[in-house]
From TrEMBL:
Family designation: Belongs to the NAD(P)-dependent epimerase/dehydratase family.
Name of the top EC class for this enzyme: isomerase
GO molecular function list: UDP-glucose 4-epimerase activity
Xref: InterPro entries: NAD(P)-bd_dom, NAD(P)-bd_dom_sf, UDP_G4E
Cofactor(s) the protein requires to work: NAD(+)
Pathway: Carbohydrate metabolism; galactose metabolism
GO biological process: galactose metabolic process
The keyword NAD is assigned to this record: yes
Name recorded for this polypeptide: UDP-glucose 4-epimerase
């Protein structure tokens, strides 16, 4: 769908190497496939604690390593000599982070520190970080722009903010130019059906809804129907994983510009769908009846989370192309015939 001419440090006959940490995870694996299609040469580093080796093509160099093992990380970077890093590797369950903050600060923060340290030591100057809109907590203004104060309300979001701060400090001292991409609700799957979203346990709404359509769940629990929204249920900004992959590549291209600066950039569609809208549209696409039950609100759930994506459009020349129908249809194709 999207293809780019290589430029500057992406010039020449040799394909540019990009180290992708967490490249066997949901978003990371889609980005790896996208890099290959756009004539880049990804190198995947993943511990496989929560990733899937099957999500990475056999032709892509794969290193089974943990960011907490600095020596192994150094060996991977020395071996492949990447020109840029795109960092997805992280634990990302909010509830788990509340129950076990030590796990999250160790894995996410210490692992990222090791990666940033290794990047500086090996003179890698271009770094794209997979951050999160969770950093905004319960926002004061919607749509949410990058000027919204950072007020994370759980350890997972705290770890992401700490990593953003580390990148800023390392840029000041060592010139590590970076883009932190704060994205909203990643959803959908590879249109070719080769890779998709597979978590254990699954906590994301769209896979849960589709599992109910497949009979793998008895029903979907809807947490609250008394919010100040059109149907009383929470509204979220769902963005297709392929559009996210496109944004990460455009962030790399942006960092290659001589006048580029380190940035924090939101990624979202600028529109939202409520929980009941997702269920209704999923019924239309799958042709299945999806049972649901209204239950109490979850603590800390804002009524509406929608991105202001003007900065991404301007700086990255990026815009989301795939609508909620494509999100649901590609996800349905994957969940109907998962490969892993």
């Amino acid at each position: 769908m999207y293809f780019y001419k290589q430029q500057k440090f992406f010039q020449g006959e040799t394909k540019v190497k990009v180290l992708v940490t967490g490249g066997a995870g949901y978003i990371g694996s889609h980005f790896v496939k996208y890099l290959v299609k756009n004539n880049f040469s990804p190198v995947v580093l993943d511990s496989l604690v929560r990733g899937h080796r099957e999500a990475v093509g056999d032709s892509v160099p794969f290193e089974n390593a943990d960011l907490l093992d600095y020596d192994s990380l150094e060996k991977v970077i020395y071996k492949h000599k990447p020109e840029a890093i795109v960092h997805f590797a992280a634990f990302a369950y909010v509830g788990e982070s509340v129950e076990n903050p030590e796990l999250y600060y160790t894995n996410n923060v210490v692992g990222s520190f090791n990666l940033i340290k290794a990047a500086v030591k090996n003179n890698i100057k271009k770094f794209v970080f997979s951050s999160t809109c969770s950093i905004y907590g319960n926002p004061l203004n919607v749509p949410i722009s990058e000027s919204e104060p950072a007020k994370p309300i759980n350890p997972y979001a705290n770890t992401k903010l700490v990593i953003e701060m580390m990148l800023k400090d390392f840029e000041y001292k060592y010139g590590l130019k970076h883009v932190c991409l704060r994205y909203f609700n990643a959803a959908g799957a590879d249109p070719e059906g080769e890779i998709g979203e597979s978590h254990s346990p699954e906590t994301h709404l769209i896979p849960i809804v589709l599992e109910a359509a497949l009979g793998k769940r008895e029903k979907v629990f809807v947490f609250g129907n008394d919010y100040d929204t059109q149907d009383g249920t929470c509204i979220r900004d769902y963005i297709h994983v392929v559009d996210l992959a496109d944004a990460h590549l455009k962030a790399l291209l942006y960092l290659d510009k001589e006048n580029s600066t380190s940035e924090i950039i939101n990624l979202g569609t600028g529109a939202g769908n409520s929980v009941l809208e997702i269920i209704k549209r999923a019924e239309e696409i799958t042709g299945k009846k999806i049972n649901y039950e209204i239950t109490g609100r979850r603590p800390g759930d804002p009524a509406v989370l929608v991105a202001d994506n003007k900065k991404a459009r301007k700086l990255l020349d990026w815009k989301p192309e795939l609508k909620i129908e494509e999100i649901l249809s590609t996800a349905w194709k994957w969940h109907s015939n998962p490969r892993y």
